[in-house]
Amino acid sequence: xxxxxxxxxxxxxxxxxxxxxxxxxxxxxxxxxxxxxxxxxxxxxxxxxxxxxxxxxxxxxxxxxxxxxxxxxxxxxxxxxxxxxxxxxxxxxxxxxxxxxxx
Length: 103
Known about the structure:
There is one protein chain. It contains no helices and 10 strands. The model has no long low-confidence stretch (mean pLDDT about 95). The radius of gyration is 13 Å and the shape is globular. Strands 2-3-4-8 form a 4-stranded antiparallel β-sheet, with no helix packed on it. It is mainly beta.
């Protein structure tokens, strides 16, 4: 069963920022890209690197280790060596607070 978990206030995640969030065994990346907030798994599917230390750009979030870029809205890798998509999480904003739906 899923639940909505408060991650932070909207003021804590400015445009272009990324934030790491742990919930139980899940390691989640929150990103504010062009004013829209996205949530994905935070660990690269290729080599276990933390994507919050990578680069957020028009192409997506780029892994700092082997430079695979993942589409921030779909989780799909845009180039090798990563081949497995990131898990995507639903996000909602209520009363200036950001929530992520986790299972």
